[in-house]
Amino acid sequence: MSDNRQHQTIYEALGGTAGIRRVVEAFYPKVQEHPLLGPLFPEDITPVMDKQELFLTQFFGGPPLYSDQYGHPMMRARHMPFPITPERADAWLGCMSLALDETVEDEALRRAVLERLKAPAYHFINS
C-alpha cells in the first residue's frame, strides 16, 4: 500500500463499505461462472453477496457487522457442508484476484487483500 495508507485498515484502504461492495459485486459473477465454484452457490446469489460484504467488512478491520447480525463467523464450520478442495480454494482466490484487478487501482493493496484471504481460503479445505 502507498505510504499514506500504511496506518489504515484494509477496510479503510478499500474505501469502506462502498469499496467492499464493489469488490463483492465484481467477485460473485466470476464465482457463478466458474465451473468448480458455480455449482456450490444458489441461483439467487444476493443473500450470499450481502453476507460476504458484512464478513469482509469485519475481516478487513471495519465494524463487526457480520458478528452483530449472525454471531461469531465460525467460517470453517459454516463451509463444512460444501466440498472445498485445494482446486476450489485456488479458484476462489483466482476469482477474487480478477475482481480486485477490476475494482482496486493500488497494486500493493490488491496483493495485501489476497495475502490476507489466502489463510482462510486454504483453512476451509475439507475434501
From TrEMBL:
Q: Which family does the UniProt entry place this protein in?
A: Belongs to the truncated hemoglobin family. Group II subfamily.
Is Heme a UniProt keyword of this protein? yes
- Name this polypeptide is given: Globin
Q: Which UniProt keywords apply?
A: Heme, Iron, Metal-binding, Transport
Top-level taxon in the UniProt lineage: Bacteria
Q: Report whether Ribosomal protein shows up as a keyword of the record.
A: no
